[in-house]
């Protein structure tokens, strides 16, 4: 198999605005009427998020270029497949547990630990697939054509997943998840008049680790920098 090429394109999903939708679903009128207990509000926010099941926070579109070849009877067959596809980065909100939330009354800070980002897909853009080469004489004598197609499809999907796990799209997806969850918990607290800091991290990160909200760059800047490196 020849070297793999990639042409990734990234696009944020409207799902990162889920915070506003979750606030509407909290029935804040009754909640705020019962007092301004931050732990009660955080617990209600948690329940609302868990009811959402899965949250798609980001998507990435990439192109896998793979080549498969076979040699038999002194004959060679080769095909190249260009396969565009899209993956989604999701949070399984059902995995967010009460023990993942910790309220510190002394500092007015709510710490939240998220489950890992999960990748869904890839969804292949069948209309944009392109193939070059073929089995030639070998495809007439054997099932080389079918084998080449099967190998390229498997390698193409594996390549799209590999690209999806690269550091840049994963960092963008994690930032999007942190922003969505931070909004979902911060907005009800602010609506209740509670001046609280919401610090979101992923499980396994140190609790003292500052939120990526505090150190992330704009998506446009990340993509411009990536483009400059490849030009």
Low-pLDDT windows of residues? 1-34, 209-220
State the major sheet: 6 strands, antiparallel
Q: What share of the residues lie within helices?
A: 25-40%
Alpha-carbon Rg, integer: 23 Å
Estimate the mean pLDDT confidence: 79
Tell me the span between the first and last alpha carbons: 25 Å
Q: How many separate domains make up the residues?
A: 1
Note the overall shape.
rod-shaped
Number of strands: 9
Estimated structural class: alpha+beta
Strand content: 25-35%
Describe the structure.
This protein has 231 residues and is of the alpha+beta class. It has one domain. It contains 7 helices and 9 strands. Strands 1, 2, 3, 4, 7 and 8 form a 6-stranded antiparallel β-sheet that branches. It has a 3-stranded mixed β-sheet with strand order 5-6-9, with helices on one face. Helix 1 packs parallel to helix 6 and helix 3 crosses helix 6. The N terminus is likely disordered.
Features:
231 residues, alpha+beta, six-stranded antiparallel β-sheet, three-stranded mixed β-sheet, rod-shaped
Summarize the structure.
The protein is an alpha+beta fold and 231 residues long.
Give the helices and strands, then pairings:
Layout: E1 5-6, E2 9-12, H1 18-25, H2 28-33, H3 38-50, E3 54-72, E4 75-92, E5 101-104, E6 109-114, E7 118-124, E8 130-134, H4 136-141, H5 144-164, H6 167-191, E9 197-202, H7 219-230
Parallel strand pairs: 6-9
Antiparallel strand pairs: 1-3, 2-3, 3-4, 4-7, 4-8, 5-6
Helix pairs in contact: 1-6, 3-6
């Amino acid at each position: 198999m020849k070297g793999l090429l990639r042409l990734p394109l990234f696009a944020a999903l409207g799902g990162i605005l889920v915070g506003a939708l979750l606030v509407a679903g909290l029935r804040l009128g009754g909640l705020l009427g019962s007092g301004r207990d931050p732990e009660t509000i955080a617990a209600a926010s948690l329940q609302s998020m868990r009811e959402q099941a899965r949250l798609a926070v980001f998507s990435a579109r990439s192109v896998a270029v793979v080549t498969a070849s076979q040699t038999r009877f002194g004959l060679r067959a080769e095909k190249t497949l260009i396969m565009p596809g899209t993956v989604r980065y999701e949070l399984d909100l059902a995995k967010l547990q009460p023990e993942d939330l910790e309220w510190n009354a002394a500092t007015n800070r709510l710490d939240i630990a998220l489950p890992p980002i999960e990748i869904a897909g890839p969804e292949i853009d069948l209309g944009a697939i392109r193939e070059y080469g073929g089995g030639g004489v070998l495809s007439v004598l054997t099932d080389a054509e079918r084998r080449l197609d099967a190998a390229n499809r498997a390698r193409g999907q594996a390549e799209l997943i590999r690209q999806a796990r690269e550091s840049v799209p994963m960092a963008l997806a994690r930032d999007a998840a942190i922003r969505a969850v931070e909004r979902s918990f911060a907005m009800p607290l602010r609506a209740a008049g509670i001046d609280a800091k919401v610090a979101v991290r992923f499980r396994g990160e140190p609790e003292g680790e500052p939120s990526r909200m505090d150190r992330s760059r704009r998506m446009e800047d990340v993509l411009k920098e990536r483009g400059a490196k490849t030009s």
